[in-house]
Amino acid sequence: MARIFITGSTDGLGRAAAEALLASGHEVVLHARSRQRASTVADLVSRSAGVAVGDLASADETRAVADQVNAIGRMDAIIHNAGIYLAPTRGATPEGHATTFAVNSLAPYILTALIARPDRLVYLSSGLHRGGAGSLRDLEWTRRPWNSAQAYAESKLHVAALANALARRWPRVLSNAVDPGWVRTKMGGAAAPVDLDTGQRTQSWLASSDDPAALVSGGYWHAMRQAEPADEVKDPAFHEALLQALADLTGVALPQDD
Predict the structure, then answer these.
(1) Residue 191 phi/psi, 5° resolution?
(2) Residue 81: closest CA among 218, 192, 207
(3) How many CA atoms lie within 13 A of 104 on its CB side?
């Protein structure tokens, strides 16, 4: 039995993964954006090993989420599921960051750096990450007109690259990225071709399975199979530039292997 923390687990793919892992006998630590949000899933919370509360658009609240998770105990796996899609404006977080960038890129980085290192890390990316090239020139969207689809694509490139970078930097951790496909969630809409159970299956499997096929690192996965990501995802130079930028913007250093 594994203890698994899932961000954004009160709805959509995050909740579907939590339900599946609980049904398989695992301990699941949930994450909700607010206390009110957590209260809407009291049935799920009552079966969980705990719930961390905090808005990932805020760096301070993201740090608080990390503290809450660490107080529960060491996780065996973490699924970085939370994300924003097609935000209508750049927005501004309490720290002044673009909201999509803060939630989709900065928050997974902060949580990865501050939560006690698990055995497995899984990051939810998207096939749209292949359109995210060039993001390092203006991560914060301060020089370009806002483009919600482009911002989303760039953020999903960031987390796929983060997963691959950690596979190199932390060789004792299994770190992978997953494209769940176009899933029928509030985000994906009713016309999406992939059902929730199928959409959550790969990340739940990577987080918990002892199947030798799941005990790998540095992969980019879709529908239970490895796929070929954009070149930047496997580029050590891109990794280092991205990690340095994220460290500079957050003031949080990613630990080296120990």
Answers:
(1) -85, -5
(2) 207
(3) 29
Alpha-carbon distance of 111 to 113, in angstroms, equals 5
Torsion 92-140-221-213 (CA) sign:
negative
Among all chains, which residue has been given the structure tokens 């969207």? 141
Residues 34-44: tens digit of each pLDDT: 999 999 889 99
Q: Give, for 5, the enclosing helix (H) or strand (E).
A: strand 3-6
Query: Do the Cβ atoms of 163 and 113 come closer than 8 Å?
Result: no
Which residue is catalytic, options 123, 156, 220, 234? Answer: 156
234 counts as catalytic: no
Which of 109, 152, 220, 234 is the catalytic position? 152
Sheet with 120-124: strands ordered across: 50-53, 27-32, 3-6, 77-80, 120-124, 174-179, 220-222, 225-226
pTM over 0.85: yes
